[in-house]
Amino acid sequence: MQKASKVILTLVLCLSLLMPMTACMNPISLEKYGYVLTIGVDEGEKKKYEITLELQRELAGAEQNMGPGGVILLSEQGDTIFEAINTLYRRLAFDLSFARTYAFVFGKKIAESGKMQDFFEMSLEKLRIRQSAILLIAEGTAKEFLGGRNANNEANATRVHENLLQSERTIGETSIMNIGTLFESCEGRRFDVALTYGAVDDKIVTDAKQQDIASTGENPIEDPKDKLGGMQTHMDGAALFDGWKMVSKLSAHDTQILNIASGRFNSGSIMMNIDKDLQYVILTKLADCRIGIEMDDGIKADINLTLSITIEQDPTGELGRTWEEKGKKMVTDYFESELERVAKHCQEVNSDAIGIGRYVSKQFNSVEEWEAFCWKDIYPEIEIEFNAEIVLGDIYIAITRQ
Amino acid sequence: MNLREGRIGKQEGLCLAAISMCVVGLFTLDPDFTYSNGNVSYVTLAIAAILSLLVFLLVSACMKRSGYEELSEMLEDTCGKVGRSVISTILMLGFAFAAYDPLARFVQVMHGLFFSGVTYRMILVFMLPSIIIIAWMGLETLGRTAKCYFILLLVVTLATVLAAAGEYESYRLYPILGCGLKQGMQLSLSETVAFLPAFTALLICCKGLNGHKNMRNVGIYAGLISAAICAVIQLLLGMVFTYSELQKLVMPLCRINHISIDEGNIMRLDKIAQIFWMNGSMLTGAFYIYAGSALFSRSFGIRDIRPVVVPVGLLTGIFVLMEFGGVLSKNEWLSHLWISAGGAVFAVPLIVSSLISLFKRNENTEKNYAKGV
Predict the structure, then answer these.
(1) What pTM was computed for the model?
(2) Nearest Cβ partner of B259 from A180, A367, A370?
(3) So where are chain B's domains?
(4) How many Å apart are CA B122 and CA A185, to the nearest integer?
(5) Per-residue pLDDT tens for B277-287?
(6) Which of A359, A390, B54, B117 is the most exposed place for a label (fewest CB within 10 A)?
């Protein structure tokens, strides 16, 4: 009897545990709400801001038009985001929910003006937006950027977001940071942020457009010079910030180098251009990054990096064959000079995107001393030295495969 | 007397006291006051717990030495009936204020994160009756509920801090202990307000905890466990938020999973964690209301605790309404006084009474010795 009751209890427990795996219990919620995935912020003409909202909206029977991950865009002007949303509500037949907002896109103009600080005076909690929402800077306006991103309606918005995070890990050409990191950098002043920089290319013939044209019986490629496929937006490096203000822009390659210097780099292929005709491609993994600070005679930051590489493209075959004699020094020198160049540029624009201030703050014993130190005033003058140790992953392949 | 005390064991008492101490230590510290000169709370809270434990051990030893069965007996013997009534009233008000603090913070967070469409009063309407009902049911209910709840709270807290594992960075703690020794000690003394109400409540419920020995053990274990939990969680919070950010965050533990880019399902369970912690705060409030009412009833010879529990509970609710009605913010000195010297409300009467009991015992011993007894 006791055994039977144990079996019954176990079954009940198993069934109860299975219950959370069933589907949504309130399927009408998607129709009731418009879930805002991304908020675009630009300078408004009549009001302070122009807010563009990218919505995941599953309207009944509208799946064919928008695709399974389809989105729609809404925009309105307002002196605050609340004013813009309130104005938007007048013409909407559903509620807006910000509980799933994962990104903010700021137009370049507003990022350079430093008005992001003013914008973030708003209460994120009031809108249920979490500080984990990532930040992007758009080359033109955020509205154009979001329009370009959604020009290809087949693109699932969630997958686009996931792909962005994945590309930081596997390529390292972007720098994904969220609102929490921006707040920390601006309030703590121990480092500055570098935010992913996106651009629009409206010449790209998207997958959806190709399908539309093909369905009319015409050649989907109108102009052979057009770029084909994908979205009309692409990530193009990183925007450097000094506090709340965007001060410069790094190319995709320089963003990789910055990520290596700051220890954020995971892995990615680095194009090593020796001259116009000679390009090596090196798959690089950041194995170790240590930043040491000396404050005896001025401030000196020693950044010691260990990079594990695999030669992906060696057109002359020289790099692998002469690795010990020549190749290793060539790669080491290349990385050190590139790192120094990018670090120098960061100092010139007073953006501590490498995050040296985090290590400098460790040298202080009291908060009073650290706050009186004014790190950002001293940062452009400090000496930064890089020591890269290059480890070739597989010398046999490097010698034989080319 | 119907004090609804019953009898609870070590585990129940330990869980009840530890929940109360941890809830106050983790959720009600004033951010501006605590973090304005750096984050040292992971040290000062542990020191505050030890200081409070020492006060508790002193009073407990005096009670045992003089044979007092519970606190009100000692207060009567050392301060007289009038003194006892005055001290009991002060302590009862102290308990109501100690119960108000976590309650107000959680009403605020529930409003901010869940129910922004309703007023604070509406949220309070749902929380306050539950607290009064638990306090009304007495110590045994409180203790047994706490025993069920303690492990759950521990698991939820552990899951929350583990989910944020990718965000911990040691540089955020720097400058380490940067506020200096003097201010560190000031903070420690002020933070005794997180522990002393629970220790005092244990002294009041000495009988319900099956006597001095059990009460003392419960106090020691609860104090040490809470000190460890508070110190570890504050250290982890300091590794997620810099001191400048912590100054602006109410209940940062509720936000520890809001900053990770890699959002997963576990990160989105933070609201469930908040519900658990809110229940912990309700249990804390009920414990303090019960303890204040028990002391007050004994001191004024009220034979039933229930007519006292309700007004003390309502008083706590009034404090919360005063805060949200702007009365307390207009009289900032009151909240500043509580933050900086709230522990003294409990420590001073207890220490004074203990010292008097020590001298009194010596006098009695000398008199007896002279009489040849």
Answers:
(1) 0.87
(2) A180
(3) 10-349
(4) 38
(5) 999 999 999 99
(6) B117
